[in-house]
């Protein structure tokens, strides 16, 4: 098991040209507004309050970089360092139209051209796991995915599902992982998977 032993906010950028090159592997968390991106970053980083979460959609408005330090539980290897990137949610309509277009363009450029990105973590609300918007996001990412990049689907707010709904999600996407930041379900499993995929170990 991999443990998160340190986390700190590094910087925010409005777009790709403002974002410094940190020379570490980046893991982006993307998904609809309010799906639980910031909460999940905090749970995976084991650091409450690191990324700002809120019940009001549209909380995250910039590209936020967090440096995460990790250790393998079972040995004395060096610490691992990766960058978590928290993004504004998509599908959030309550911002001015011009601003919305601006965000979309910035996000699109960042996702397509940011060379340090090694893993796209796509968060999907487990209660609404087959929305067109999420299917479209998966095709969108796959349309520019490089050979050194991976995608992982995480299904959030699993605490709100009963057992048969959980089974339906896993049947729909056997490679996905159901997670809950509320009861910490599968957080350790998701962390292991995220780090191993981002570091090209699987
Ligand atoms: N029940 C439950 N609620 C959750 C879970 N994760 C997040 N939430 C709640 O969902 C709301 C949104 O969480 P955020 O982490 O801010 O979501 P976000 O995707 O970062 O939202 P934006 O930044 O607006 O795009 C908050 O009220 C959280 O408390 C979960 O696992 N279970
Ligand atoms: Mg957020």
- CATH class call: Alpha Beta
* Mean pLDDT value: 91
CATH topology: Rossmann fold
Number of helices: 5
Number of strands: 7
- Assigned CATH superfamily: P-loop containing nucleotide triphosphate hydrolases
Tally of separate domains: 1
**Terminus-to-terminus distance:** 15 Å
What share of residues are in beta strands? Answer: 25-35%
The CATH architecture can be given as: 3-Layer(aba) Sandwich
H/E element string?
EEHEEHEHEHEH
Question: Strand order within the widest sheet?
Answer: 1-3-4-2-5-6-7
What characterizes the major β-sheet?
Answer: 7 strands, mixed
Can you give the helix content as a percent range? 25-40%
Q: Indicate the low-confidence ranges by residue numbers.
A: none
What is the approximate shape? globular
CA radius of gyration: 16 Å
Structural class based on helices, strands and sheet pairing: alpha/beta
Pfam family, one: MMR_HSR1
Cofactor: Mg(2+)
InterPro entries: G_ENGB_dom, GTP-bd, GTP-bd_ribosome_bio_YsxC, P-loop_NTPase
Family: Belongs to the TRAFAC class TrmE-Era-EngA-EngB-Septin-like GTPase superfamily. EngB GTPase family.
Give an account of the 3D structure.
It is a single chain. With about 200 residues, this protein is of the alpha/beta class. It has a single domain, classed as P-loop containing nucleotide triphosphate hydrolases (Rossmann fold, 3-Layer(aba) Sandwich). The protein contains five helices and seven strands. The protein has helices spanning about 35-45, 95-115, 130-145, 165-170, 185-200; strands at about 1-15, 25-30, 65-70, 80-85, 115-125, 150-155, 175-180. The protein has a seven-stranded mixed sheet, sandwiched between helices. The longest helix is centred in the middle third of the chain and has 17 residues, at about 95-115. The structure holds guanosine-5'-triphosphate and magnesium ion (MG). Guanosine-5'-triphosphate binds near residues 53, 54 and 60.
């Amino acid at each position: 098991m991999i443990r998160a032993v340190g986390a700190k906010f590094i910087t925010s950028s409005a777009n790709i040209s403002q974002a410094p090159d940190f020379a570490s592997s980046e893991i982006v968390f993307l998904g609809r507004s309010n799906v639980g991106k910031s909460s999940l970053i905090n749970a995976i980083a084991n650091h409450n309050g690191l990324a700002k979460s809120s019940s009001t959609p549209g909380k995250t408005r910039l590209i936020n970089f967090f440096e995460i330090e990790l250790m393998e539980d079972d040995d004395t290897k060096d610490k691992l360092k990766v960058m978590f990137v928290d993004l504004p949610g998509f599908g959030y309509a309550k911002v001015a139209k011009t601003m919305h277009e601006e965000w979309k363009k910035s996000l699109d450029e960042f996702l397509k051209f940011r060379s340090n990105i090694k893993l796209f973590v796509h968060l999907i609300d487990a209660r609404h796991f087959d929305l067109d918007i999420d299917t479209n996001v998966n095709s969108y990412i796959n349309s520019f995915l490089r050979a050194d990049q991976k995608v992982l689907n995480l299904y959030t707010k699993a605490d709100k599902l009963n057992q048969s709904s959980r089974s339906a999600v896993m049947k729909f996407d056997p490679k996905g992982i159901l997670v809950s930041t509320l009861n910490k379900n599968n957080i350790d499993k998701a962390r292991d998977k995220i780090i191993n995929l981002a570091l090209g170990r699987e």
